[in-house]
Amino acid sequence: MGRISKRRSAGKNPDARSGAVTAQKIRYYRAGIYARLSAETDRKESRASQSESLEGQIEIARKFIEEWNGKHTDQMEVSDCYIDLGKTGTNFNRDAFQRLMQDVRRGDINCVIVKDLSRFGRNYLEAGNYIEKIFPFLGVRFIAVADGWDTGAEGSEMQQMSSAMAVEIRNLVNDMYARDCSMKAKTSLVQRRKEGSYVGGPAPYGYQAVWEGRVRKLIPDENTAEIVRYIYQKFIETESYTAVVKELNIRKINPPAVYHKTGEVCCLPDAVYKGWNKSGVERIVKSDTYAGRLIQGKTSITAREESNRIHKPKEEWVVQEAAHEPLITPETASAAAGIREKWKKRREQNEG
Prior knowledge:
Layout lengths: L1 H24 L2 E10 L3 H8 L5 H18 L3 E11 L9 H12 L4 E4 L2 H4 L3 H15 L2 E4 L4 E2 L6 H38 L12 E6 L2 E6 L4 H14 L2 H10 L5 H7 L15 H9 L7 E3 L21 E3 L9 H22 L1
């Protein structure tokens, strides 16, 4: 009886242990869905395919999770969605992506899901570094739904090598595509500048930017053109940026940033007044734009922060004379330049 009892006990224990092992193998993934759409290049793609939109990317990832949970013992749940709008895929210095990585390091996210590899990034080396080194080191599963790439999927060594090679090829293609688009954008920008098109952001204070055919032209803004003339007049009279600032602030005229945002020339009675400063006045007085001269291409087009801008030599600038209607006369421009030149000579004498 003892032997029978022991055999029965032995017969039950393997099943119990098997059940425990099976339970231990069930894994729960806290997924972070990442979606990206850049300002220009990917916007064109989104018009061609709705799936490229941010909403489309997120919906594809959610659908994948829903189908996964219906077919597998391991379960996934969406912890958060990380969205970068207007961000290039050529680098990973993106706000939402950095927040995703912060949550990954905290252990809040152990699975990253993207629509495809191009949404993750178009830089071949950096994308490969995250997928093949950083994520595995941190124990994070990476899934690119449309590309069929899943670092947690089981398979033969040959299949894994084949998949890895396919990912590297896709990353390389994405990288080359981004470089090609960047080169085309730069070429187009240079050509538009040579045609006299204003390629900056908001029009300079005192002007509006309008399209005339394929050329973006500056025309006087009837709301602020007279204020620009007033600034030059007061500067010539007082020979002082500070004095001009004082006059503008007394009259509670909104500075350029506030005007561009609100459309209000003067501060409204119930609004907090954010006045002018010396640099704002100095920028206008020093600008050739108000004399009808358009100078573009002074800095690199890829630098988004002032600290990273590359200032180009004058011979590389694109200069258009009489590019638009001037707001000041040549005599006014000359008088203002004369005052600044006098200051420069005085400084040189003092330093000498």
